[in-house]
UniProtKB/TrEMBL annotation:
It comes from the Bacteria. It comes from Clostridium pasteurianum BC1. Pfam families: HTH_26. One of its GO terms (molecular function) is DNA binding. PROSITE patterns: HTH_CROC1. This is Putative transcriptional regulator.
Length: 78
């Protein structure tokens, strides 16, 4: 599963979604979808702008958390 930590990063800076929208030029509705983890797709340019404005690394904004299923079967060859 992919987790988005935008709410945490904004909270640490005491910024609102509107503050981030103004500083990045990203539509407030798009920021809201990312903030609430409702987006199925996220534009790479948006991620770049958010990381730049928040002065954070991508891995601080988005993390991959393995699902609880057994992932012992690999689909690729080593």
């Amino acid at each position: 599963m992919i987790r988005i930590y935008l709410s945490k990063l904004l909270g640490e800076r005491r910024w609102t979604q509107a503050d981030l929208a103004r500083k990045t030029g990203i539509r407030p509705a798009t920021i809201n979808e990312i903030y609430h983890e409702l987006s199925e797709r996220v534009n790479l340019e948006h991620l770049d702008k958010i990381c730049e404005v928040l002065d954070c690394r991508l891995d601080e904004l988005i993390k991959y958390i393995p699902n609880k299923k057994n992932h012992s079967k690999k689909w690729w060859k080593e």
